[in-house]
Predict the 3D structure of the following.
Amino acid sequence: MTDLFDFAPPPPLYAVMGNPVDHSLSPQIHGMFARQFDMALDYRRVHVDVGGFKQAVDSFRAAGGQGVNVTIPFKIDAWELADRRTERTEAAGAANTLWFKDNLIHADNTDGAGLVRDITANIAFDVAGRRVLIVGAGGAVRGVLGPLLGETPAALAIANRSVDKAEALAQLFAGRARVETTGFEALKGRSFDLVVNGTSASLKGELPPLPQGLFSRGALAYDMMYSREGTPFLHWAAEHGAAQCADGLGMLVEQAAESFYVWHGKRPDTAPVIEKLKWSA
Ligand code: NDP
């Protein structure tokens, strides 16, 4: 006979949804965080067909899912699906973290907090009073603009291939901070203390057409993409005067830590996780 008290409830169910999603390191990262707290956790990868995000979330909730991380290309769908959004998510227009409570879908965007934490805490680069250039104006940049502006840089410019997209992004923050927008050509002769590559060019082995002389003395070059071999942008930056170069692995782990905190109220130690992934990612 089964002892009633032997019954163990299933571990809480979470997932990352995206397309593609096979490459996602999120299950590994959340698994390592959970082990730090001796927590049982069932965290899966869910491949979602384009156009099928709402249905996937509904099915996951019906199966007992408690929260979802969202990656390319569903961050805007996640924002639209949410009943309640945190302030930083409202401004970003894109969400990467959902959870279900009181029959409502709640949304957060932890990408910006992840980037800022990696730059300011892990790399120990102070953004306050610095001239910042963000290259790219897609979903990832939408999420990080507000938190970066919160660090009070002296100036922040967005350069994008399609300048109208950069202008639309800057408009989101009109009245709160002055965000300059520019094409690549107009960057000639200018220099910045922090240059963040938020384009997807590195994913295709490409480099945005950036001019020489872009990095001021002591500048940090940061690529949101991560790769053990380095990225085209970081190789270029190292050859063109950046004092420090960093890829987006730290951002990935820090945004996950922020999601973990939002879901479970516990702040994991990110340093050993970043270190482990550096050698295995
Ligand atoms: P989007 O598709 O939304 O945006 C792509 C951006 O890249 C656009 O601004 C586009 O310009 C620009 N772009 C693409 N190719 C080129 C090129 N060859 N030259 C110049 N500009 C180019 O992508 P996301 O914003 O979602 O992602 C951007 C990057 O950020 C990806 O590499 C992704 O992996 C990374 N990322 C990393 C995270 C982390 O945790 N480390 C989290 C989220 C994203 P245009 O508008 O003119 O088309």
Observations:
- The CA atoms of residues 228 and 278 lie 7 Å apart.
- The mean pLDDT is 94.
